[in-house]
Amino acid sequence: MLDFDEALEKILKHTKRLPAVKTSVAESLGRVLSTEIKTREPIPRFDSSSVDGFAIRREDINDASKEHPVRLPLQGTRQAGTSRPVSLKPGRTMKIMTGALLPKNTRAVVMKEHVAIDGGIAEFTLPAREGENVRRKGEEFNRGEIVLSRGTIITPPVVGMLATLGFTSIKAYRVPRVALIVTGNELRTPSGTLRAGEIRDSNSYALAAALCAVGISPTLVLHVPDRREQVSKAFARALKKVDVVVSAGGVSVGDYDFVKEVLNDLRVKTVFWRIAMKPGKPNYFGTRGARLVFGLPGNPVSALVSFEMLVMPALRKMMGIHSFEILNSSATLESDVRKRAGRIEFVRAIASRSSDGHLTVRPVEGQGSHMVGGLAAANCLIIFPKESELINKGDVVAIRMLSWNQK
Ligand code: AMP
Ligand code: MG
């Protein structure tokens, strides 16, 4: 049976980044820039005040002090957004708002809080530094400078930067189209009435939510009973429409597990079936051309952990995101944990920071592959290596934060 690391490597080897497409900046969050972005003008575009205050020529208040205040008559008020050119006269000051274009000859702006006003006269009790409270044209970027490099993940400040630069659309790698297929005669919708032996389908909802957490809404969600023709029809339909098919259930060794046979009939090339991991042993991965097919096990925890550890890296690679090192960490184990040798185990756990800033981790109750409650309570997975059987309280263990974790 394949090791987890080898399985992930095989998946990523078959996964290609998708082509770049024109994307509106408003819809670009979480996507990746396929080109570098240069400024078409200096940023800031003009000299302005960084505070609400009084523009001065500086030499006018060079000798200002508490004992010898300098009094300058007001020349007027400067509002943000006003374009009219104006020159500050010698011996005068002008009231100016944050972001307003500086009057010519201004050398500094004194904060409003430090100036007393009396009948159209401003009183200064401190000298000003050259350039104080002034934002200079081009102080952040010159015209033609590279502001964002190719491969940048579009975050809220990147969106803000693009808007600042006047971009309404950019080129970003395409988001994969994904179909979800859940299989099982026993599955009913959450609102339906259940007969004996039936359960509520949770995988189609949980997996759609996991996709949503990486910025993808499924193109297609199909529910199929364990009937070979119907399973076949669903995969055939999905394969026509999407880049990635993710199914849950029907991929193990049961008499009604048709997923592997059906995919074989549909000319999907099996890359692997079964990984030495827990949860998630009967994982299937295959390709048809550039299309990827993940046959996840049906147990809800297996399906979600497999999605997180195997499917998500592939989806992110397609979108141009390679690293998620930030999710990998280590923590001190709060109690002994045991398992059998032979499979890597992803133990659902809660990592928390102790008062001295140290990260500690403890397994949650409910480690069964069907116990979604355990995964819902967890914020990370302890990575329990394949051949070890015991990790002791006090050991430092590798953990992987769950990407959807908000705790
Ligand atoms: P399977 O992989 O089809 O053998 O399913 C393994 C276990 O997961 C069985 O107990 C199924 O009833 C359960 N299961 C399969 N699909 C779902 C689903 N969509 N929602 C909740 N449980 C499921
Ligand atoms: Mg089944």
Task: Describe the protein.
With 407 residues, this protein is α/β, with parallel strands linked by helices. It folds into four domains: 159 residues, Molybdenum Cofactor Biosythetic Enzyme, Chain A (3-Layer(aba) Sandwich); 47 residues, Molybdopterin biosynthesis moea protein, domain 2 (Alpha-Beta Complex); 88 residues, Molybdopterin biosynthesis moea protein, domain 3 (Molybdopterin biosynthesis moeA protein, domain 3, Beta Complex), CATH 2.170.190.11; 78 residues, Beta Barrel (Beta-clip). The chain is 19% helix and 30% strand. The protein has seven helices and 28 strands. The strands form eight sheets. The chain has a six-stranded mixed β-sheet, with no helix packed on it. A six-stranded mixed β-sheet has the order 16-13-17-21-20-18, sandwiched between helices. Helix 3 runs parallel beside helix 6. The protein starts with a helix and ends in a 6-residue tail after the last strand. The chain binds adenosine monophosphate and magnesium ion. Adenosine monophosphate binds next to helix 3.
